[in-house]
Amino acid sequence: MNKVLTALLSVAFSFAALAQQSIDLGALWQRYEFYAGGISGLRSMNDGAHYTALGKNSIDKFSYETGELVTTLFDANSTTELEAFSGYTLSDNELTALLETDTESIYRRSSRSEVYVADLITGDVKKLQQEKVRYATFSPDGESIAYVLNNNLFVYQRALDVHIQVTTDGTFNSIINGGTDWVYEEEFALVKAFWWSPDSKYIGFFRFDETNVRSFNMDIYGSELYPNPNTFKYPKAGESNSIVTAHVWNSTNGRVSQVLENVNYEYLPRATWSDDRTWVISTMNRLQNALTLYSVYAPSGVSAKLYHETDDKYLEINDELAFLSDGSFIMLSDRDGWNHLYHINEEGEVKRQITKGDFNVTRFYGIDAMNRLFYQSSEAHVTERNIYSIGLNGRGKKSISAEKGTHNGTFTKDYSLFIDTYSAEGKPTVVTLKQSNGTWVRTLKTNERAEKALTKFTFTPKEFITVSTPTGGDLNAWMIKPVDFDESKTYPMFMFVYGGPGRQTVENSYDGFRSMWFQMLANEHNMIIVSVDNHGTDGRSESFKKSTYGQMGKLETVDQTEAAIELSKRSYVDGNRIGIFGWSYGGYMASNCLFQSPDVFKMAIAVAPVTNWRFYDNIYTERYMGLPADNGDGYDADSPLSHVEGLEGKYLLIHGTGDDNVHVQNSMRMVEALVQADKDFDWFAYPDKNHGIYGGNTTMHLYRMMTEFIANNL
Questions:
Q1: Are residues 153 and 240 in the same domain?
Q2: What is the pLDDT of residues 490-542, one digit of tens each?
Q3: What is the number of other CB atoms lying within 10 angstroms of the CB of residue 131?
Q4: Is residue 2 included in any domain, yes or no?
Q5: Structural domain containing residue 120
Q6: Residues 6 or more apart in contact with residue 619 via CB below 8 angstroms
Q7: Which of 317, 347, 368 is the last residue of a domain?
Q8: Is there a single domain that holds both residue 122 and residue 253?
Q9: Which stretches within 433-493 are classed as H helix?
């Protein structure tokens, strides 16, 4: 009877599968049918009962309770000053808005825009500057706006209608005031380098002197007769950094004072104000294994050491720092082997470890008036992220996001409500409003189009598994099988790898793009897709993450190779047909796996790979590898360039020539090494495309090329 039932269910499932459409590249990269987004430009308002969102050229105000549109705060269609805008910021008193339009990207996170100042009471609109500016920011009282123009810091005083030029020495590729250089933007995620004091009397800002930083030259081919040279400062491993200094501008007398003049440091990765007069600056040494916080008293410029922490290997910088009224503060530290929240007293000593256990706190959202902290962590599972609350005393911990998967929170200013942006494997993003105790209030947004696509097209959810390896131990992984998987058959296996420090590919979240490409490969090309998180990746203990220090590529390559071998022992995996694909650090890994284990991997695709860490920027590389002068063997031992002789399978190398992050120099060196080793390979360059390789038909072309390469060689 059971066999009959099984057979009937199998037939029914087969008919259901046949009724579905096959995923095609057009659905992914032209119609974006699987795309699932959040709410654009959502901001909680001061009253805790309303939020604003970006409408069609408007700023709309909604009720949290009903979700209904209450009013439109600003409508560009009602003014002749501007036709449209793409972003906005409200002043703290919510009476004025900064509107951004015609935004132009500079690097990954930085941009410049035309900025307009809109009075939300009168509807009057005024252009801030005739030129595009960077990082326009209201003072807390809303009376002034600070911004960066031509590498100088300016302040616009609205009541007087005057622009004050705070600095005058800004020079392209030399001096930057109030903004950061390329490497701070990329590796510290810091682009705006000025901070208003809470009382609007002072601005603390950083000045970057990149005069002695060596330049990188990158031709932009465009459509002109001659290429346009793009020259920017890029400090590679072991090379000189910008000299970064800290300064305070006093709005009362207009004076600028340098601070921390007698402090020894290499980096200033973070800063914040703890009160109206105290500017707190984070400093780090060159190796990034010592962090010190300094408090600067703005009226005098006098500084004092507030906190100090060291590590045998490295420390990660983060934004998890919040000051309390008594001068103590909350911060995130991995001092006990896991990332946890600590309460530090005003003398810089640990008063209490607030969270404890074999998990990582991954975000700290803040603390409410009742001294309850709200945070995100991996406590439920290494592949998941959930939101919790806990008392400042470390008691009363409560999970306020129940569903398995990935939750990201955005809290109202009083922490009475939060917006939960949730997704999981096979579950497109859902945005809900919840009370701070986790009680559901209402759903703000679903993604019906993506949900429909999951039923319209063939889809088999990832299986989250553990792979036991001889030397790497148990490694987290996921597997996608064809929709008509038959365990009595054998299938080629295609592996997706990133593998870099502090990152994961094995996550229980929704990915409407690359994961759906993997679905297409599994079902249309009848293969098994796998991804494995090797040593060095995030979510597990600090010892696991930092085990790759000084030897990036070594343990990771062993882990991926051993995982491939262990998985090939399964009866349905064809061990003679294993391929691997990765992008950026993943391209570095895919190259290493193919070159160092030719008996395991038949083919590899490497997109925008680092090929030797000597070519990459110093903040990232030295954090995980130390200085080249001290660790030359570590830099070269697992460089793919050192192993090109091992290439036996099929290799596709892809790079954008406009990649300011991982320069095409990496692939050019690879091409030359392979040529000199007399190895056959495939190589494709996308003119002027950056690290993401997109724009126009580019993504479609890229994934079609990779799909064909996989089909022909695996």
A1: yes
A2: 999 999 999 999 899 999 999 999 999 999 999 999 999 999 999 999 999 99
A3: 11
A4: no
A5: 39-132
A6: 183, 184, 186, 187, 188, 235, 241, 267, 288
A7: 317
A8: no
A9: 448-456
